[in-house]
Amino acid sequence: MIKRFFLIFFFFVLFGFASYGQYLLEVRDSHSDEPLQGVSLSGVMNYENRPNGVLELTKNALEVVDSIVVFRHGYDAYTLHKPFPESPAVVYLNRLSQNLDEVIVAVDQSARALRKSPSSIAYRESKSLFAHQSAVPGSQLNALPGVYMQSGTNNTNRLTIRGVGSRTPYSSNRIRAYLGTFPLTDGNGVTVLEDLPPAIMESVEVLKGPAATLYGSGLGGVVKINTTGFDDYRQGALLNTKVGNFGRKMLGVGGMARNGHFAARGYASVFHGNGFRDNNRYERQTFYFNARQKVAQTTFSIMMLYTGLYGEIPSSLSEKDFRNSPSSAADNWQAVNGYEQYDRVGVNLQARTIMGQHWRNQLTVNFRHNDPYEVRPFNILDEETHAAGFTNRLKYYAGNWQVSLSAHLTRENYNWTTYETTESGQGALINEMLDHKLHANTGLLMQWQPAGNIIAQAGVSLNHVRYRLKDLQQPGTTFERYQFDPVWSPSVGVNYEPWETLNLFAAISHGFSPPSLEETLMPDGLVNTDLQPEQGLMAELGLRWRYRKLLRLSATLYGLEITDMLVTRRLAEDQFMGINAGKVRHGGVEFQTIVRPLSFLSNPAVNLTITSILAHSVNRFVEFEDQGNDYAGNHLPGIPEYNWYNMLQMELFGRYTLHLDHRMAGRQYMTDDNTLTYSGHQISSLSVSARVGQLHKPHVTFTTGIRNLLDTHYAAMLLINAPSFGGSAPRYYYPGTPRNGYVSVKFNM
Questions:
Q1: What structural domains and CATH numbers belong to the chain?
Q2: What global pTM score does this model have?
């Protein structure tokens, strides 16, 4: 019976509800790979737009035409010539340059233009985001409103969205991230973006605030990285090389090929940098492969990602060393030559199926393996993780309604061992633990468009987290089981377009973040069963306005209240413990303006874009008592009062580009009692590039630039509530890299 069920299910996934006698055409955005609706055809008289966006033509109609032009507002037209590709065919449209209004975003699962989203979403193309040729994604993300990335070193980063995640000492937590549909967040909630090569990124989308209805846990929001697409202009080979100060060297090779319904893309790179600090060497090898094959009504795809990394850890510095010898490493980390090393492997399988006129289905299965090894002054941590997960999203289209039903399940086995650190290396075993995690959530999202200028959506999700923990040092012990109560997370939102150039939106959403395993364990190794997931409720109001091609303006006002906030208490140099910190409140405003002062010219030789992004927030404890201290009313540490990013980009004759940006980060508190502050900093960077050859033919691009143009001495990352052990001064500061230059040469063949 079960075997018969799977055979029937596979048949429908593979062939959907096939239409014989009809020619089916699916149109997708080349950047986000999302299906496009509202597409028109020229050159053929009779065709039908199905509710799920697929275009249906009769095969008889095709016999009398030689070509079909596919077009949609905001995109370059695409022409199909006889002989037409086999049905069902897929066409990828390229968005017109500088047309941000019609960007199709995927992170909110709506497949609508950004301006019509009822959620607050930040979007940036990678060619602008990584204009300064960084080989490591880091502080470049600060160019997104509401996003703040602190980069202590290439392998020590902390990403926060609207202040959420600031309490995590050495990593990014409370945020979910995806490379396409492949998860970059592990079962402990830790997200790693910094080991991805920017060359495989097409664009970055950030959904700000709780998104449990769509993705499960993650109070801060969701980062979705769209990978480079498969459109006709990408075929051929790529060779990229970069050199810079502090021993930076990078070499990357890649290519793409298409044949009928099959397309494949690959990229491999090696990067080496000595860093400007002692004990700061960084090496990374990356291999990425992505392929797709269309069979009948289903498009199958596979993505593989491998990262091999070795990164030394100079750690943070005291205020004295930060000001007087910022290139030094912390003495205890230097003494043991502290480093981390790992091999990370991920495989993502996906099947997207068109099912009749009203349905689409997307099934994703992923596998992950990671084996970090970290040498630290207080112990050596040896970890190994195996994880598997699946997500299914079924979408129904009918009239003015879109209904999505999603289900997600992840199983992760996490084994970790600690050893003593000795002068000769790894010492005696301290402990060995095994943890099994199960994350499950199901969600329902409904979108209703009662009129052409109103979109309303409502959703709800049910989330469940379960752990099993076993001490492998104790013979005969069994798994200790614990779980959190299921969490219901509702959300509602609306987008209203009073006139063509203005969109107003409002949303209320609930979310949660469960404690990580490190936070759950007490110093004696037992599970703290009193610890609860933190939960939050966010409300936001916003607008998106545009004036012709000259000006784009967006503004958002938000408030987020979190109960049972999770904070990490450091008990000793090698001991951490999570506690619930009562209630906190985040509130702020975000502005983004994009001005193109020469857009009134019909065919300008110079394209000038000026962007300004400002985010200001107030983040306070409402209720928080810790070890007899009452911090109610204090500011949360580790969050700048404001972030202000300004960028000028000038293009000459479509061949030469100048990119100048300036970032300002405001004052931050460094402790819960607000007695210590960091005054903030300003950083400027400049790059110039020139292309030799035609854009869609073999060409070479030369780029050179200077990061930290004014050689500012600043803290790239702060360790909040830094402890003091053995009478030494607390180490709050990770010094930022001083002025440095680079040269890049990129061959497209």
A1: 14-93 (2.60.40), 100-223 (2.170.130.10), 224-748 (2.40.170.20)
A2: 0.92
